[in-house]
Write a structure and sequence with these properties.
Elements (H helix, E strand, L loop, with lengths): L3 E14 L2 E7 L12 E4 L11 E9 L4 E7 L3 H6 L7 E8 L12 E6 L4 H12 L5 E6 L8 H5 L3 E6 L6 E2 L7 H4 L4 E5 L2 H14 L2 E5 L15 E4 L2 E4 H4 L2 E3 L7
Parallel strand pairs: 7-8, 7-11, 8-9, 9-10, 11-12
Antiparallel strand pairs: 1-2, 1-6, 2-5, 3-4, 3-6, 4-5, 12-15, 13-14
């Protein structure tokens, strides 16, 4: 897909959690085509310690409103600076980057599993499935009920199941312990979140004979495969997650 460098206008920055903000962006022109699972590289201006762009998953694209949503975890100087953006500011973005999730086939039953900020690309994936006449099933995990993100948005597009480590909402434990995995059979799992979680999901998928793909969250400075900081070992050799991913079939990953 063609890539663009755009100065997008900030519509709003909403603090949805102590550590997360939702940034909504727009453009005077129609936003480019973007696929679920792709990401953008944003330039952070005004941060003396931030020299490289930051990769942010595409959370959602609202075609009717010409909006791009970015869910940002404020974990460092760069992302904290992004959280300080105001409506009317401009944010320089390179987009769309990477390869997205595999399109769902008619009648295919897909489970979307996410944890932490890794839930971000699953919202757009679920919305795309809904638009295609399919109902996704979401399985979202967090440490506590307060750490669950955008649950009401996910509920617009499909069934939502939840686990929390402390049992404050949904079933207690990790996503791989949820009862839905033993109650229903799925054709494919798509997952994004902390690497230990995704590895556990991958092991479960292999054990159950379910096709599975994972969206990796390696550090990606350029987004174009030039800087080599996001290299991942696979069955095909070393690849750049930003260019060859970030979504991979788990069978190609040398995680074990």
């Amino acid at each position: 897909m063609k890539k663009y460098i755009l100065d997008l206008k900030v519509l709003s920055v909403t603090q949805i959690h102590a550590r997360y903000v939702l940034i909504k962006l727009t453009d005077s022109q129609k936003l480019p085509e973007m696929l679920p699972g792709q990401f953008v590289e944003v330039r952070v201006d005004g941060s003396p310690t931030t020299f490289l762009r930051r990769p942010i998953s595409i959370n959602y694209v609202d075609r009717d409103r010409n909006e791009l949503w970015l869910l940002v975890a404020t974990v460092g100087d760069g992302t904290r600076k992004l959280a300080q953006l105001q409506a009317g500011d401009m944010l320089n973005c390179v987009l769309p980057l990477g390869n997205g999730f595999t399109p769902v086939k008619t009648g295919e039953k897909v489970l979307l599993i996410g944890g932490g900020v890794g839930v971000a690309p699953l919202l757009y994936m679920g919305a795309a499935m809904k638009q295609a006449g399919q109902e996704p099933t979401f399985l979202l995990g967090a440490r506590t009920a307060q750490d669950l993100l955008m649950i009401d948005e996910f509920k617009k597009y499909g069934r939502v199941y939840v686990t929390t480590e402390d049992g404050s909402e949904g079933e207690k434990g990790f996503v791989t312990n949820h009862s839905i995995l033993s109650q229903e059979q799925f054709d494919r799992i798509s997952t994004c979140g902390p690497t230990p979680m995704m590895k556990a999901v991958a092991r479960l998928a292999v054990a159950k004979g379910i096709a599975c793909e994972a969206s990796l969250e390696n550090l990606m400075a350029c987004g174009l495969g030039a800087c080599l900081c996001c290299v991942e070992k696979t069955t095909e050799g070393n690849v750049c997650v930003c260019k060859d991913g970030p979504v991979f079939n788990i069978q190609s990953l040398l995680w074990e």
